[in-house]
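Moderator note: this is an archived Q&A kept for reference. The question asked for a predicted structure of one protein chain; the sequence and the answer are reproduced below.
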Amino acid sequence: MQPSATPVTGLILTGGGARAAYQVGVLRALVTIRRQCVAPEGNPFPVIAGTSAGAINAAALAGDADDFEQGVAKLVSIWQGFHAEQVYRSDSIGVIRSGARWLTMMSIGWVIARWRRLKPRSLLDNEPLAGLLERMVRLERIPELIRDGHLKALAVSASSYTSGEHVTFYNAAEEVTAWVRSQRRAVRDHIGLPHLLASSAIPFVFPAKQLTIDGEPEWFGDGSMRQAAPISPAIHLGAERILVIGAGRMHEPPGKRQVSGDYPTMAQIAGHALSNIFLDALAVDFERLQRINRTLQLLPAEAREKSALRPIDVLLIAPSQRLDDIAARHLDALPRTIRTLLRGVGVSGQGSAARGAALASYLLFEADFTRELMDLGESDTLARRDEVAAFFGWVPRWPAASEESAAPAKRHASAVTDPLTPETVHYFAGAEAAVPLPA
């Protein structure tokens, strides 16, 4: 357990289907960096919050909160050997019963619906995922780990198709007032398998899951939908500094990207929509951080001290490469039935000639793809090990960085000038309620 003088550190794991393999690479690098430093023992993340596939990773870590390195090792073992059939049915019968019927309903369903009970719920059947999660996530241990002080809180977010609200389910050691904002709320609950299946139910792709709130059943889908403030759950649950691991590039490299002038396929449109759901909220939240910080900087020091606002360091680690481009190189790794199904909506080609790779990237639960993402997450994090060590307050055992290699640390203090740059920024808790923001 951490000493009381250590700030409570939160971990935010965002959504993105198979892209969440990148998070595991980052965590693997954190284990390496911590071993190279003088660092406190115990769980470095007393507060853990996740959404979609990030919720699954978050719950898995929480279930091993008394042995962080073991928890990361388990995640690495699963993600580096992934196959699609562990997440969704990819056999011919399974695909015909879900995907083929779903596409039929989308095309001529209005003709045949009156004569047949053709009501598929999703493009793919993710029944195998439930079995994987039962083996992978030790949810039954979480109340005990919270009671013993290894974990302060776990939060998992989902989106209600019934009410239209974004809901964060949380389990915490201390009494936390459930927060309510416009179109989003928090509900104290014991996190179970249904919460993880609901949070990771990619819209249209996987079926919704029913959960109960205040005694009333509601249907829930992927928590990345309508997630206006992905960082806020960790703050409400008491985190004083937060590591956020993204699932997509936060800014594009200079230069014009070569694109096709052809009319977009359904796959390209769907991939664009999913990227909006999974990736854009984090960027918007960081833009809000910049506006909040600038507003608070205008306050006199005395006024800031008297306010309920507190500064919280947020370190963001996001991919240095486009994951769509990586996915384009691995489309052939998908099962033949899934490639055929996706080809029907416009996923085609390979490498630079691929179309619809963004859509495929969320479904590419194949080892070739997940291992490359893990390696990228690890290398991106190790390249910033000085910054990571400084964020956690760990004392490095490696030689002092040269003036040139220390440049990222110098940027630390001024990172708030560009919230879309993957550097450390300051977030002020409670500011979303205290500072009116433009629409």
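Archived answer notes: The two ends are 42 Å apart (CA to CA).
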